Amino acid sequence: MSKCLYTCAMDLFTFLVILHVITGLTGLIAFWVPIATKKGARTHRTGGKWACYGFMGAGALAVAMALLTLYAPDKRHPEIADRELFEGLFVWMMLYLGILTIGFADYGLSVVKHARSREQLRRPRTQIVIAAVVASGLYCGYYGWRVGDPLMMALCVLGVVSMAIQQLFIWRREAPSPKAYVGEHFRALIGMGISAYTAFMSVGLIRWVPEHVFNPLVWAGPSIVGVSLIIYFTAKGKGHFASKTKAKSGSKSASVKPRPTSV
Questions:
Q1: Are 192 and 143 in contact (CB under 8 A)?
Q2: What share of the chain is helix, strand, coil (3-state, %, to 5)?
Q3: How far apart (Å, rounded) are the C-alpha atoms in residues 112 and 123?
Q4: Which of 53, 69, 101, 197 could make a disulfide contact with 222, Cβ separation 3.0–4.6 Å?
Q5: How far apart are CA 45 and CA 42, in angstroms?
Q6: How far is the C-alpha of 16 from the C-alpha of 64, rounded, in Å?
Q7: Residue 99 in contact with residue 132, Cβ under 8 Å?
Q8: Is 251 helix (H, G, I), strand (E, B) or coil?
């Protein structure tokens, strides 16, 4: 690459980083609004949309930056001696996490929009996004296996399994319960947060603290928090459903008057 072309590429990269920080920070902050507010309320919906659109923008920019990094990877982060591993982290894993974040956000919004019509989720637009996540995830896992990085392989499993679960909901023959989409929506947006925060901790934050680039706690932190949220809200939702069912059965029993017994 010529010096002039390299300079232009780096200037473009810097501009993309600024946009990525703005959109990513929007998503990172707005992500907690729907979690902390009443589900289905206006604040919940507004905060969720801001988080989704912020993360989708950041994901698209991450893909662009990953592709640009392919042109001159040897000029940045000289502290990482293994340049093949550098390419894995800052190209293929960043590319995959960007697509994964977009995939989760897109599905989380689509499954609510088409809550009563899974046929809409079977259309090419949704299926292409899911296929892109799987393809990029498999290559990320393969690259991680090739360079001996278990974290890249673990992230591959996370994305591929998540897309498989989504496809089971989309394509299964029997009709799901009327509220089944709520769980799909919730898991997708928590997955969006996991992938976005993983990208932030492992790729974004590492630019300022490169000595922790291989710290497993940095990489695993978002997954631990995200899975804990899924378990907590799933248990809470089941408890709420059980209490409502019990209350309804109790009210029905009370409405049935006992017949007088004859002497």
A1: no
A2: 85, 0, 15
A3: 15
A4: 197
A5: 5
A6: 8
A7: yes
A8: helix
Other beta carbons within 10 angstroms of residue 163's beta carbon come to 22
pLDDT at 141: 94
Amino acid at position 147, single letter? V
Q: What is the DSSP letter of 119?
A: G
User: Residue 36: which of 51, 23, 54, 26 has the closest Cα?
Assistant: 51
- 163 touches 130 (CB < 8 A): yes
Task: Pick the closest to residue 20 from 45, 49, 55, 68 (CA basis).
Answer: 55
Is residue 192 within 8 A of residue 52, CB to CB? The reply is yes
Please tell me the pTM assigned to this model: 0.80
CB atoms closer than 10 angstroms to residue 84: 12
Q: How far is residue 199's CA from residue 23's CA, in Å, rounded to a whole number?
A: 13
Residue 9 has pLDDT above 80, yes or no: no
* Amino acid symbol at 202: S
3 CB neighbour count, 10 Å cutoff: 7
CB burial string 110-131: b at 16+ within 10 A, e below: bbbebbeebeebeeeebeebbe
What pLDDT, in 10s, does the model give residues 198-244?
A: 777 766 666 666 555 556 666 666 767 766 776 666 666 555 544 55
Q: Give the pLDDT band of residue 130 (cuts 50, 70, 90).
A: very high
Structure tokens at 142: 């393969």
- Show Cβ contacts of residue 165 under 8 Å, excluding neighbours closer than 6 positions: 187
Distance CA 63, CA 96 (A): 8
What residue spans define the domains of the chain?
3-71+82-238
